[in-house]
Write a structure and sequence with these properties.
Layout: H1 4-11, H2 17-24, H3 28-36, H4 46-71, H5 78-91, H6 94-104, H7 106-118, E1 127-132, E2 143-152, E3 155-156, E4 162-163, E5 167-168
Length: 169
Amino acid sequence: MIDIEKVRAVINSDTTAYEIEKQTGISRSQIGNYRSGKHDIMNMTLNNALKLQNYIEGEVKMENHFIKKELGHLFTTEEAAIEFANIYWNELKDSARTSEIDTYGWDSVADDISHTVGQMIVESGDFVEIEISSGQTKSGNPELILVGELVEVPIENEDGDYDGDYKFK
């Protein structure tokens, strides 16, 4: 079954027509015609609609895989990691999405969280936010993003090292 909202999401996304063409085989001019309204999405062939739906489902599945792999250790549930990542992603301007997330991956975001929390005096039950710099946000202003409620903190062992990790829910 075709989910027209997923098809619309691809057409209305910030993804370039070139990238969609490369991934789906649907020409850039067709994508442009749907985006401009010259062609109605509701009149799209089933084949093209299926290609676009499969494209977005594959992108989401792949992205969620990397989020779980690279951020998952910081959260008590996969859903919490994905929810944080979606909020973070939505604050980034397009150029930051490409240069930061694609180049360095979600593990750089996880490192940023760990570094930020490591600089703070925190304990279980505290809510923690991280800042996205003004150069990376859509608004052009620094944005604070809620990571979540801290439910676990590393514990110092007898050697003076720390065991465990920060965990959020």
